[in-house]
Amino acid sequence: MEDSIAKYFKYVDHHLKNKSYRPEYLVASFISRLLFSSVEVIGLDRLIRQRRDETRQGAKTINIYIARHLSEFDWQEIQRIFGGADMISAIQAGDNLFIGPLDPVLRHHGAFKVFRDQARIYSDHWLANSIFRILDPFWNDPLFKKLLPAIGLKRREPVIIDSTLAKDVYIAYMKHLIDIEARDILIFPEYLKTPDKKVKYGRSYSGKLLEFTPLIFKLLRDINKKSERAIQIVPVNVSYERVVEDQSFKTLEKMKSNKFTKRFVYFADYFFNYTHWLYQHQRNRVVIKFGDPEPLRKSMDFKIRLHDDIRKKVGQLQTVFPTQIIGYAFHDRTTLTEAELFRRVEKTVNALKKIGADIRHVEKLTTRQIIQSAYDHFDLHQKRRLLVRNEGKKTYTVVRQDVLMQYRNHIAHLFEKWYEPDRLIKIIDIFRDGPDAETF
User: Fold this and answer.
1) Mean pLDDT over residues 312-323, rounded?
2) What is the pLDDT of residues 121-171, one digit of tens each?
């Protein structure tokens, strides 16, 4: 069974070579400097020390990094940091991201493909696959049946990967990465259910910390039981002062709902992201935190909901910026007087202090400075401004509520109530999301 599944690895495999990552590291670092004023890394040092100590002893614990997913730059910044520490990992990515010439680029940066829908594959090379995919419908035409063979082209039958086979390939490949390659893996497990009851993985367009799928954690437990390798889960949170593509999410959702534009979604996404530095007024800060590793024991109690436990730990790594304070203060309002905004900002900061949130980027600022800092970051150019200040009326008006709400949602999970009765970890009562929730 394993040998029959292994033949499909060439369709999903990463092309990561540790010794060849230096050029990509330099390019990624250059892009990072264009977009971000600073990238602070917290908690990675202990993982580096652990890896070095184990290397001297001839051992290696596999790190499974479980991260929140707010931006396309999550994996790029994390992998860039890993590259600088010589700890680069494989990255789990949906097949929708491997578009044309981007396919080899993503694979070379460590991404391996996970099929989400049925796939028809003609070749493991992106260009040949594209050519045969385009030509396939023409083989039933009598003219092309004669013309194509005349120029040396033969019809190629596609390899069909349905949902069952995709699952088998994914499970086998994860075991291969851990047992054979001894490779660290970066995973973004957030998901939500769409109105048509489909499951959607990927970035959180709403800015909320979404639920974590339990399937990945069950698989890791199953692998851990049979593997001779030590495995530990490392929570990761990337906090942004401002998400690069925050204003494009609404456009991307519209493009995805249209059959014609759907195929161009990620081209538009990449174009927006990598030209953002041309019109941003100022670069934004980023904080990447690595939490305490949680070793997987061979006999773990399956009553413990590991996916909820890790989600909580990932969420608690959040760093708070002025942009999120303002987003939270507005809540669902579109206009606030200056006096009311001051009151709400102070109330939000005090609430964050009480729960022990990481507010070091705001605690030394006055209320006015918090508002001004967020206002400056939300001010790109006229068409992309999020807040407008009316000096005469002394009011603040939201121009793009869908975008500002994302920043409220970046920290909303910090107010969730967590309980641990009988070691069964649950999430109860999402703060301020219900009809009877407390408001300002």
Assistant:
1) 97
2) 989 998 988 888 888 777 777 777 777 777 777 778 889 999 999 999 999
Residue 26 token pair: 């330099």
Same domain, 254 and 171: yes
Cα–Cα distances (Å) from 163 to 117, 169, 195, 197, 254, in that order, read: 6, 10, 21, 17, 26
Among 334, 124, 313, smallest CA distance to 235 is for 313
Pairwise CA distance, residues 256 & 260, whole Å: 9
Residues 271 and 415 in one domain: no
**Same domain? 281 vs 224:** yes
The number of domains in the chain is 2
Tokens of 346: 């102070």
- The domain of 254 spans 20-115+165-315
Assess whether 189 and 219 both reside in one domain. yes
CA 254/CA 261 separation, integer angstroms: 9
Kindly list the strands in the beta sheet with 387-390, ordered across the sheet, starting from the edge strand earlier in the chain.
335-337, 395-398, 387-390
CATH of the domain at 417: 1.10.10
| Mean pLDDT of all residues in 187-208 | 89
- Between CA 322 and CA 366 the distance in angstroms is 11
